[in-house]
Amino acid sequence: MKTTIELPQALFDKAKRHARKHKTTLKALIEQGLRQVLATKADAATFNLRDGSVNGKGLNPEFRDTSWEQLRDAIYPGQGA
How many domains are there within the chain? Predict the structure, then answer.
């Protein structure tokens, strides 16, 4: 597949010199770099948030039908507006 990418001139020049020095092409160098980055990202561990619920029953009965504002006021009494 063909595509066009824009690189800063200094990066392009450095990449061309690197490719020449290592007897490869700019295309091969870009492919290698992309594969390396994608492999690294795929290996990164996925973050899983542990279940922090208590007994899995949700809010205490006294707070089940309250608004966010009422819940916030119960948690932080005397603070806010």
Answer: 1
